[in-house]
Structure formats: structure tokens, C-alpha cells
Fold this sequence. Notes:
Structural class: mainly alpha
Order of helices and strands: HHHHHHEEEEE
Strand order of the largest sheet: 3-4-5
Number of helices: 6
Number of strands: 5
Largest sheet: 3 strands, mixed
Strand content: 5-15%
Amino acid sequence: MSRGEDGVDIRRVCARLRSATTRAELASVLYREVSGYSLFDLQALRGRVERDLQAVPAGYRQRLYPLMMEMLFATHHTLIATMRRSDPDLPDEPLTGDFQEFCGMVERTCLTRESDQRLGLLYYLLAAFNIFVLALPAHPVGTPFPGGLTVEVRNGEYLCPVREKADDVENALCPYCPAKQSDV
């Protein structure tokens, strides 16, 4: 059965995502899906991210946590506010070739989770808006990585110090991220 343990029909949502062929169509699908989540759900996702970050060293966590929260809440706000406008003015460009792979990864990941499937899906829906609609990196600018390196923007191009090193991490957003590897 495709319905997750917490009531979301993951296969149906992923099929709707896969039906989008342009960035504007994807934004519309994402808006419909994300609108089904409440602010309580967004707060629950915040709590889940907090729990996930408990395994991260304290100094790193203190720098990373505010950026993650800003990304989650700002992305949610931008998606909802943009799509509520009468003319959202989104690019009607075709989605990148790896979008279908992204949808498959999201479906596999969410269906194999034992808990928080619905919140996990919300996380990926927000990430899809940033990556595929807005062409923003998976990690916000300023995200710190071990060694003092950060995601940055130079000459209008997003650069990430771990872009090429994280492609083999299962369920990672890195393979779909528009950032390029920084010359560290």
C-alpha cells in the first residue's frame, strides 16, 4: 500500500510531482501539496530537524540550526505567498533531467521510513521548491561544513564545498542541487 503510516499517500503525491514538466507547473503542484500541511506540521518538522541535529557537535549545531530554520520557514512562506498571487511570475522553463530521479528518491525514502513519513515528505516538498523552482542550493548560503567551509554565492553562482563529495549519501539532496563544487 502506498499510504504512509501517518495517512499521507506518498505514491499519489510523488505521481503528482512527476506530472509536472515545467518549473511553474511544479510550483503549482507543490503549493497544492504543501497547503495541506498546517503550521503545527511545520513546527513538528522544526522539532524533527532539532532532534536530527542533536548528533551534530554543539559548535557546529549552533551555527547550522538557525540557517536550517530560516530555510524551512522562509521556503514555506515564499511558496505560499508566491502561489497566492494572481500572477506568480514563475519561469515556465522545463524541469531539469534529474527531477524524475529526485521524485523516485523521495518516494523510496518516505515509504521506507518507519515514522514521520508525512513530515519527511514536507521536507522534500520544500526542498523541491528551492532546488527545482527557485534554483537555490539544497543548503542555504552560509551553511557551515567541517573545516570552516561554507556554501557561498560568487558572481551569481552558488558554490558548495561538499557538492561532489556527498553524491553517494543515500537520500541526500546533493545530487539534485544546482550549486557547483567550490574550489576549496
